[in-house]
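Protein modeling request. Please complete all fields; requests missing the sequence field cannot be processed.
Requester role: graduate student
Desired output: 3D structure, token encoding
Chains: 1
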Amino acid sequence: EPSFNISPNPVCANSQFTMVNTSQTLPGGTPTSSYTWTINGTPYHKGNTFTTYIGTNGTYPITLTLVDPSGCQWTSAPVNLVVIGPTAGFTNPPAGCINSPVTFTDGSTPYPADPIVHWTYTFGDGHDSTFSAAPYAHDYADTGTYTVSLTVTDQLTCTASYTSPIPEIGRAHV
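Delivered output (174 residues):
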């Protein structure tokens, strides 16, 4: 029966992992003429080693099918790949005023047992800030509409990102 290793496992969402065939020979000592890696039901006709990534958290069964020159097939037992990581998100603040704090409400979710440790906001005005806890606030110096990005990092260094335009920043009325 074919065998293989997956490294790393578990793996962060959107991070590469590699599967390596560890089978010595097929029955009867015949050579392998093709390799098919099947991930969650989708076949990939690749070689002895295959590197890829998966973008969504979950458990994914993987099998390896080896074919000899006569067309005989051998399929491994499934090995589960665990894909982990946080999900990034925030609630848009109401419209704000220049030179006043605009506060973002975190909507990120950690992967169970792996807390988020850093929130890095790119505010769309040329300024970035990394926070380790709320509040997540920024003062805009100019009026306008900005696109804000948030990247969260958990304690295992898995990351996730979210981007959204925010309501217009205007001038304060006096």
